Amino acid sequence: MADSLATAAEGIDLRAEFERSGVRDVLAELDRSLVGLAPVKRRIRETAALLLVERARKQLGLAQETPTLHMSFTGNPGTGKTTVALRMADLLHRLGYIRKGHLVAVTRDDLVGQYIGHTAPKTKEILKRAMGGVLFIDEAYYLHRPENERDYGQEAIEILLQVMENRRDDLVVILAGYGRRMERFFESNPGFRSRIAHHIDFPDYSDDELLGIATVMLERQNYRLDSAAAAAFARYVETRRRQPHFANARSIRNALDRARLRQANRLFETSTGPLGAEALSTICAEDILASRVFSLAAVRESGDD
Fold it and tell me: Taking phi first (over 0 means left), then psi (-120 to 50 degrees means alpha), and beta for anything else, what does residue 60 get?
């Protein structure tokens, strides 16, 4: 009682709490690990500030209930939604809003059964694993399939809604997926919309940001593009994003994996003696230009099928 009275009298230094909680470290790591995403990072910082103030208010007896923390992340594939969810779990744990700070990432198949009596145990088992942390449901709209009268997704939805309301002091749920599909999902399931407090939209990366992401990915694996390869990869990015099924950073990672594969085969087939670190670590233009992305683009420009 004496400590709480002293706290109330002295007030709370938010800046000191910010440093002490480790939130600064989480936000700094978010900046280091993700290229671009300025509006997303801004929303995360704003959310952190809100939660820090709410925690201070609770310490001073001004707030009694845990704020609603369930979220919706919308955006195209490869825009960093899962990575940000991991950082958010860490942030919420450091601020004391969840007990463990772990993230359980699932899709419809992890929650919905294939026969009567199968869905409830599956969903409850996932929720049990996620308690004390964050449950991240990717492509959440697939839980709802109104065209199929015998679909069991609605049962999972009802269980999730109940837990999101009754256990919101011990579980944060993040629903993720394409923006328009998520909007239709919320229209069909207003119970979810009423429980989601934070909606964050993840924009597509620009060409320059994608090139920056490629540089970071390569540096982590001790690879580099020579100058000609860098120019070729810039052409690759510009061409690939106009083609179907482009998935932002995910597509960049896949492209680099294939370039490394071609580099390895080139070195194996052409080397006649010992290779140094420079040769083993350098991706050349031919490793990029051999991609079928360029041949497909050429076919489309010629009008051939």
Answer: alpha
Q: How far apart are CA 9 and CA 11, in angstroms?
A: 6
DSSP, collapsed to helix, strand or coil, labels residue 16 as helix
Q: Which residue has the tokens 């497909």?
A: 296
pLDDT for 106-135, tens place per residue? 999 999 988 788 899 999 999 999 999 999
The helix or strand, by DSSP H or E, that contains position 3, with its residue range, turns out to be helix 2-10
Rounded to whole angstroms, how far apart are CA atoms 136 and 172?
9
Nearest Cα residue to 12 out of 61, 50, 66, 59 = 59
pLDDT in tens, 179-201: 999 999 999 888 898 899 999 99
Q: Name the strand (E) or helix (H) holding 44.
A: helix 38-59
pTM: 0.86
Which distant-in-sequence residues (6+ apart) come within 8 Å of 299 by Cβ? Answer: 305
- Beta pairing partners, 134: 103, 172
Cα–Cα distance, 211 to 213 (Å, whole number): 5
Contact 124, 159 (CB under 8 A): yes
Alpha helices in 204-276, H assignment, sequence order: 207-220, 227-240, 249-270
User: What contacts 111, CB < 8 A, 6 or more positions away?
Assistant: 119, 122, 123, 126, 137, 143, 153, 156, 160
Q: For strand 198-202 and strand 224-225, is the pairing parallel, antiparallel, or unpaired?
A: unpaired
Q: Tens of pLDDT along 218-233?
A: 999 999 999 999 999 9
- What is the Cα–Cα distance from 21 to 225, expressed in whole angstroms? 40
Q: Which residues are within 8 A (CB) of 73 and not within 5 positions of it... i.e. 6 or more apart?
A: 81, 84, 85, 174, 175, 176, 200, 202
Mean pLDDT over each residue of the chain, to the nearest integer: 89
